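Hi W., the adenosine-5'-triphosphate complex you wanted:
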Amino acid sequence: MGDGGAVISARGLVKRFDDFTAVDGIDVEIAAGESFGFLGPNGAGKSSTMRMIGCVSPPSGGDLRIFGLDPVRDGVRIRSRLGVCPQDDSLDHELTAMQNITTYARYFGVSRAHARKRCAELLDWVQLGERARSRVGDLSGGMRRRLAVARSLVNDPDCVLLDEPTTGLDPQARHLLWERLFQLKRRGVTLVLTTHYMDEAEQLCDRIVIMDGGRIVAEGSPHNLIKEHVTRDVVELRYAGTPDDAVLATLPGRVEKLGDRALLYADDGDAALAAAHRAGLELTSVFVRRSTLEDVFLRLTGRTLVD
Ligand SMILES: Nc1ncnc2c1ncn2[C@@H]1O[C@H](COP(=O)(O)OP(=O)(O)OP(=O)(O)O)[C@@H](O)[C@H]1O
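Structure:
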């Protein structure tokens, strides 16, 4: 495979659109069997990176290897081992669920007889067996996402690229899809996904990079990133009016002001909460929670992921 077993290896990877740089020299190494995420807000450069990895958009600079191969020269060989689930499902809404997958299977040279069996198995696996004959236009958003995932597996790929797999889905549909992705992970399939949902990154990924403005601002396991960049707990303080900065400065821990609320970062949230009550702030609501990747992003960029 080359690159010491790396499925994906990028060095100084760049993507430019005319004079705009969408991906600005990133280094990424993804090992076989890993579940890896690109986390970042809209416009961070996640999809541009995925499209280069998926061999649909050539890099403007740097070095990229997938399975040790060059995506520009060896795109066909790479794609035969990759599953790609793009952000816009690119499903044909006039065709049935089954037809969407069988058509795709033929691109990969799966024989007609075998394609039918394989596609039926995949539809069952994503719980769409009973909707095989339904037109895609009649399926819900969650069903379409599951169909797109099933379709990306027709060639039995070693690595699956999922661009925002659950954006726009309701919680039940997201959890069903997550469960299926866990199954793939357990089978040893390498998963590479983009997301702007921190809980998705925390749930699914062994390791993530946080992207902002085309660059990587942090890398590590979700657990370690939180440990490294923020405290264990956060107290969310909502207040009436404008709080006195001098009072906020007396609170134990780092304070981050965000519009109508302040975040108080402290390892012992309950003690910090008690101190906030004692400080005499005019609070309308308070609660203590564990720090998340959202807090890491805020710490590193000064912005929230959903800005
Ligand atoms: N084909 C293109 N031509 C010009 N600019 C582009 C093109 N594709 C992407 N961009 C720009 O590159 C930047 C990064 O876009 P990209 O889609 O990679 O971000 P993203 O992190 O995936 O965000 P999103 O979650 O919105 O998809 C954006 O500012 C976008 O407008």
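DSSP finds eleven helices and 13 strands in the chain.

W.
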